[in-house]
Amino acid sequence: MLPVTLDPGKIAILLIGEGPAAERRAAMLAEAGASRIRRLRSAEISNAADFAGVKLVFIADRRMPNIDALAARARDAGALVHIEDDPARSDLHMPAVL
User: Fold this and answer.
1) Using CA atoms, how far apart are residues 24 and 60, in angstroms rounded to an integer?
2) DSSP at 77
3) What is the pLDDT along the chain (98 residues), one digit of tens a residue?
4) Are 94 and 82 in contact (CB under 8 A)?
5) How far apart are CA 12 and CA 79, in angstroms?
6) Rounded to the nearest 10 degrees, how much is the dihedral formed by the CA atoms of 13, 14, 20, 23?
7) Element (H, E) at 82
């Protein structure tokens, strides 16, 4: 791992998912100053254009049936991917904030 700190106010972020995990992630991003955030349900993503310009993708619901396909599309568009509670399939690690 390479320790890196990002300013979420300077990059486009896509948050995919719904439910408690997505709400927690949205709150964390807002508190950190994310200003260019879009939220979508996995069913709302229709093509690669949904990832255009996005640099960081959070997939907040590990139960989505198409999670690997979404992650692949995000990576193909040049974004880093974080899958909630799944470091093996994520491009980055999100340490706890106390």
Assistant:
1) 9
2) T
3) 788 889 999 999 999 999 999 999 999 999 999 999 999 988 888 888 999 999 999 999 878 888 999 999 999 999 999 999 999 999 998 887 77
4) yes
5) 9
6) 50
7) strand 80-83
Which parts of the chain fold into alpha helices (H)? 20-31, 67-76
The count of residues in the chain is 98
Contacts of 82 (CB under 8 A, 6+ apart): 56, 57, 58, 59, 90, 91, 92, 94
Distance from C-alpha of 21 to C-alpha of 59, rounded to nearest angstrom: 9
Contacts of 2 (CB under 8 A, 6+ apart): none
Measure the CA angle with vertex 72, ends 1 and 11; round to 5°: 65
Q: Give the tokens for residue 52.
A: 């255009």
Amino acid at 20: P
pTM equals 0.92
The two three-digit tokens of residue 72, written as one number: 């692949």
